[in-house]
Design goal:
Length: about 350
């Protein structure tokens, strides 16, 4: 992702009539280093937030993780950006929208809690000798769910995945068997804590980028041009790549949350799902660049409307991955309420857009 962002910054920076020149600014580090540090700090917190989100997905699920983390991003980040941008966004619209995001955070936490209770009830109905422990071992035996050749553990690489009905206890156990991050028996607070941490990280990268391009804190010497978006985006991407490389290598050999230790050889030989990961990085990289260009034009607070991404991830989570299938009525009501509030919040946030002078 970050390599794509760097390349995009180089390419786009050579188009248009941006002054000062992109390549020229790269050579003036001795003058614009304070802004460069802000841009790099933004890349660091975004990279950490991305990594935390990947752990949160296992505990909280795709839909709730994205809604909560995106809402926190807007609540904190958009508030910072509103004041950094000299209040160019309409406050009477922006802050009611932020309040809607706060409500969405509360509803998201309630959805996670309710769904965890639903899953616990499903698992309690399993035979006592089939209930999962630290590592799930339950294999369904009913004609309706029996896989032909067993359940695949991708870390072992044998057998084929059984076709279980989404939302059933057997489906939940199969998911637990297949993933490296085991969540059965762990407190729901762990997932929520990781999700909130990711949201706080995400909330800081946009204000940091804002400071890098507009120098509201007057860190640059008088007469030194502000970083153009493409220059800041380049440093942002480089720092994100470096911290992602360091953290992933660290967790490869010293994993957290009871995951398995791995190696470079195993990593390089495992291409299962690697294509999807590369595609996700490409989309994320281009999305970041467009968000920054939009923020420079219409205000970074309004540009945070890009956090509408949970509406897409919810489609994936519910319709394709089977999240919340066979859940309780209470969970469904909370889920619909959370998504409805989030849609309203995004619409209000977009309506607050202003124009940078």
């Amino acid at each position: 992702m970050y390599m794509v962002e760097s390349k995009a910054a180089f390419t786009l920076g050579e188009f248009g009539d941006a002054r000062p020149n992109f390549v020229y600014q790269l050579t003036e580090l001795k003058d614009n280093w304070p802004s460069v540090l802000f841009a790099m700090a933004g890349g660091v917190v975004l990279s950490i937030g991305n990594l935390a989100t990947q752990y949160a997905w296992a505990f909280v699920g795709l839909s709730v993780t994205e809604v909560i983390s995106s809402s926190i991003t807007v609540v904190i980040g958009s508030t910072f950006n509103y004041f950094l941008d000299d209040k160019i966004n309409k406050a009477e619209i922006l802050f009611p929208g932020i309040a809607c995001f706060l409500v969405a955070v509360g509803l998201g936490s309630a959805v996670h809690s309710s769904n965890a209770a639903d899953n616990k009830a499903k698992l309690n109905n399993l035979p006592s000798d089939s209930k999962p422990g630290t590592r799930a071992t339950f294999i369904p035996t009913s004609c309706e769910t029996l896989p032909e050749n067993g359940i695949k553990d991708p870390e072992v690489g044998n057998d084929t995945v059984g076709k279980l009905k989404a939302g059933t206890a057997g489906f939940l156990v199969e998911i637990e068997n297949r993933r490296s991050i085991k969540v059965f028996g762990k407190s729901i607070l762990i997932g929520l804590a990781i999700t909130f941490f990711a949201g706080v990280c995400f909330s800081l990268f946009s204000p940091a980028f804002n400071l890098a391009t507009n120098d509201q804190w007057h860190a640059l010497k008088k007469g030194v041009p502000h970083l153009i978006v493409y220059t800041a985006f380049f440093y942002f991407s480089v720092s994100g790549f470096v911290i992602a490389l360091i953290l992933n290598i660290r967790f490869l050999f010293s994993p957290i949350l009871d995951t398995h230790r791995s190696s470079f050889k195993a990593y390089l030989n495992d291409w299962n799902g690697r294509g999807w990961a590369l595609l996700a990085g490409l989309l994320c990289g281009f999305g970041n660049g467009l968000q920054f260009m939009g923020g420079q034009a219409a205000g970074y607070a309004a540009a945070d409307a890009v956090q509408a991404l949970p509406l897409v991830s919810t489609f994936w989570g519910i319709l394709l991955f089977g999240e919340y299938r066979k859940s309780s009525r209470r969970t469904y009501i909370l889920l619909v309420s959370m998504l409805s509030m989030f849609i309203v919040a995004v619409a209000v946030l977009m309506a607050s857009a202003g124009h940078r002078k």
